[in-house]
Structures are given as structure tokens and as C-alpha cells.
Amino acid sequence: MIVRPDYLEIRGLTVTFDGFVAVDHVDLTVFQQDLRFLIGPNGAGKTTIIDALTGLVPATGYARYGATDLLGRKPHQIARLGIGRTFQTASVFTELTVLQNLDIAAGAGRSPLSLLRARRGVPPQVAEALETIGLSRASGQLAGSLSHGQKQWLEIGMLLVQNAKVMLLDEPVAGMSADEREQTGALLKSIATDRTVIIVEHDMDFLRAWADSVTVLHGGKVLSEGSVADVQADPKVQEVYLGSGHTAQVPAQAAEPVAHDAGPSTGEQHVLVTEGIR
Ligand SMILES: Nc1ncnc2c1ncn2[C@@H]1O[C@H](COP(=O)(O)OP(=O)(O)OP(=O)(O)O)[C@@H](O)[C@H]1O
Ligand SMILES: [Mg+2]
User: Fold this and answer.
1) Residue ranges of region Disordered (predicted)?
2) How far apart are CA 154 and CA 98, in angstroms?
3) Which end of the chain lies in a sparser environment, N or C, as judged by fewer CB atoms within 10 Å?
4) Structural domains of the chain sorted by starting position, each given as residue range(s) with its CATH number in brackets
């Protein structure tokens, strides 16, 4: 019997803000197990795609996971369909412990009655998530006291306990130490074995180390797609990141000035350069 892997299929996804087309007829198909990186200069529309898929902004086109179109649904309905996301700025409950954060996330799908029932010990799926994100020993610690990297892992853990099958992660390694990046890469790789994962990132070293495939976005449109080597070799990509005819490494912002304030884009603006291909 052939088992078809799960996948997210996006067709003609379009988001318009007061006449400005931020996401312009984007087609994207991402299979389970394929760690997909979504890159592009500031303002390319990366976060807006995630916002559209999670019901935070209205969009046209369609975005199917399984038999269900995600568009036109409320954020909590989409979360219940198994679509989870993180934000560019980690959004954990800083005054609660790691365990309490996970417990609340795990409770999101439970009935009010089961939430009232007395809890004995740590629920298995919470213990498993703690182990996966490497925070078992920090479970009693306040989330606010975690390092930036650990907060991102906790957010990922909160998606795990919600049984998210699709994970949309917005710049997860921005501001992380080299060690934390390495651990995050391994964590994401293992999570992607039975989930569909899209990672928005600016960090090109991280991308080269962990991406299975890459989609490059520019001006709301898909500019290029393929393996890391494919997109790095694509002249269109080189032009966007470097400007035609240049060979030197330049900041991505230089090619595309930031024209908005969509929260702190703390990602290092590494660029995709030909000499960087490994
Ligand atoms: N709520 C909004 N209202 C109006 N314009 C918006 C809104 N959200 C995003 N935009 C615009 O849509 C475009 C895409 O923004 P988006 O935040 O998706 O870019 P991004 O690729 O995530 O950039 P970054 O790398 O800086 O995070 C930008 O021009 C931005 O100004
Ligand atoms: Mg963004």
C-alpha cells in the first residue's frame, strides 16, 4: 500500500492591505518531512503568508491541509485543525512556569470539564514535549527567566502538545547563540519527520545547515524554489540579494529597504551569495 505523506497545498494565495498587494498569487506545496525554508528580503510577505494561513489576515486563493481549506476560518478553528505557528517575538506566558505554559497549551484542545478535573502528575504528552524541546530540567522555572532560545523551544513545545501537524515558524533562531541554533536545527529536523514544517529565516548559515528545500519570496511573489544549491545558483535570486553584477556580500536590506514596522525583525540579514555555496 502506498502511504501518501501529508502536505500543505497553497494556490493563488493573495493578501491585500488597502490596495497594496503584500502576497501576490503564491503557490506553495510543502510535504511532511521536507524541512522547507521560506526566505526573502524584509517586506517580501513571509510573515503575511503565515498570518493568512492562521486566520489573522483575510486572504483569497486556497490553502489546503488534508481535505480542508484553511482560508476563511477563525484562528482558533485553524489551530484545532492542527496548524500551529510561532511569532517573530516569542509569546510565552512569562509569569508562569515552563510546565504551566505547556499545560495550558495542552488544555487548549480539552473540554472545560477535563480541565477542571484534578491532575495527577505531568500528562504524558507534556512530559514528552519537555523532553523533545530539552527543557525537562527547567520545567519548574518561570518562562520569563528562560534564555531567548529556550523561549522559542517552549513555544515549539506548546505546538507539540497541541498536536500541531503543520508548524509555521517565524524566524525561530533570530537572536540565538551558535549552540542554541545547532540544537534548534536538530529539534526542527526531528519534528519534521512526521510534520509539515515551514521556517521563515534570514540566517543563511542556518538555512544551509538544515534546509531540505527553499522557497524565495520577493515583492509578495515566489521568485525561486528548489534545493539550497538550486536557489543559490538562480540568477534571479542573486539579483534580488546582491543587485545585478555584484559579487560582494551586501546586507539584504540594501536590496529592499524596510518600509514597515512589523515588529522586531531580529534576524541577521545574511545574504545568499554564490561564494557561500557549500
Ligand atoms: N497589517 C498590515 N497592514 C498594512 N500593510 C502590512 C500589514 N502587514 C504587513 N504589511 C505590509 O506587507 C508587506 C509584507 O510584510 P511582511 O511582514 O509579511 O514581510 P516579511 O517578509 O515578513 O518581512 P521581515 O523579513 O521584515 O519580517 C510589507 O510591505 C508590509 O509593510
Ligand atoms: Mg516577517
Assistant:
1) 251-278
2) 7
3) N
4) 1-82+165-231 (3.40.50.300), 92-163 (no CATH)
Q: How many CB atoms lie within 10 A of CB 171?
A: 25
Supply 111's cell numbers. Answer: 473540554
Tens-digit pLDDT string for the chain (278 aa): 666 678 999 999 999 999 999 999 999 999 999 999 999 999 999 999 999 999 999 999 999 998 889 999 999 999 999 999 998 777 899 999 999 999 988 886 556 666 555 556 788 889 999 999 999 999 999 999 999 899 999 999 999 999 999 999 999 998 899 999 999 999 999 999 999 999 999 898 999 999 999 999 999 999 999 999 999 999 999 998 876 544 434 334 333 333 344 444 444 444 444 333 33
Nearest CA to ligand 1 atom 6: 17
